[in-house]
What does this fold into?
Amino acid sequence: MRVLVPGWIPVFAIMSVFSFAAANGFAQRPSLELLDAKGSATQTTINIVGQVKNVATKDLSGITVYCDFQNGGGKTVRTEEGRLDVDPLKPNNSSEFKCSTKASPDVRGFSFRFVSLFGGPLTVKDVRKK
It folds into this structure.
């Protein structure tokens, strides 16, 4: 038997609203700003070095960087993991990150995803100079 208290919203309803908002990007303030990312290649390796800034109001820790290496059509052909050099990353501080993968003629571009060990996917604002 379920008992509903007038004026209370069941916990599962509240969690569903937050999950929906997070999944659909509503009211999500960025936690990180992508300041820079540069790729370089040798005959055997593709390397990426980037920099992010914590624009949240709290420390961010346990951040994993997923570097998605893409073909000419923008489809991800390989994903590699990296970490921030600074952990935890304090508010308004920056950190470098690195990713590398085996060289391949299929790889024509890259993108990033940032995930917190305890908080899930992070919203990132790309502020690189175009």
Summary: The mean pLDDT is 84.
